[in-house]
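Entry:
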Amino acid sequence: MSDYPPVARRMWHQLEPLHAALYFAPEARQVASDLGFDVSSRWPSYFAWRTAPLGAAGPELVAATFYSFSPRMIARYVPRIWTTAEPAKVLDARLLAVDRTLTTLIGDRLTTAQLTEAARLARQAAENAGTAARPLAAANRDLPWSDSPHLVLWQAATVLREHRGDGHLAALLTCGLDPCEALVSFAAIGAAPGAGFAGRGWSAQEWSDARHRLAARGWIAPDGSATERAHKEREEIERMTDRLAAGPWRALGHSRAERLAQLLQPVLGAVFEAGYLPRHSTLGIGAVKVGYP
């Protein structure tokens, strides 16, 4: 059983870019604009796309489930996004955005048989993802499955991505990191540039206060660098996240997980070649890596 956490980590690297393409693709931006969202910033449509499975969620619920965003920032967009379009309309538009985005990305990179197989394997993994205490994963899995393989593939990737993310929040809480401390410590160990988190809405004072709290706990050295303790604790958080994310892959098995990864390679390559994703990922995934790291 202990050999599946590494599979969970590898498959996250495979599926995260596929899921995240929605938030950056020009096709999705156009659909959001047509729906009435201000697309001069990506945040209105981001919060709408990702929150809609929860229904007309308010700022407290969104802050709780998204965790690392400043509640003050979230309140600038939620619940106002629902006056632009109600969740049911957002979900319909989300499917249209994913349809257009993946149709462009996949093209003839996969045969119909390959795409159908990838969708089937991903759905099997998603349907074996335990959703207890995982609200975003559960909300996405509650949605009806499409008859189109590329939409099934994206929904499954989203369920699995949110399943891992919900588990990651449990690991952060277990380690005693509040939302801002989670970002500050992640940046301190060099996993992602601190500047990349500016969009999460924390003020310079809040960031500084979090650094001081971490310093008092022995995570930040006097020169501002991460201590050995910080590196060890963050490594344990990632290991715990992998353990909590292993269930779907244990159910799928090594050979089928490997087959899904092989089928996803051309799609992953298309996402990176399109240049949709930020050059520096705030998730610690190298944007230039394709395949098992």
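Residues 286-293 have pLDDT under 50 and may be disordered.
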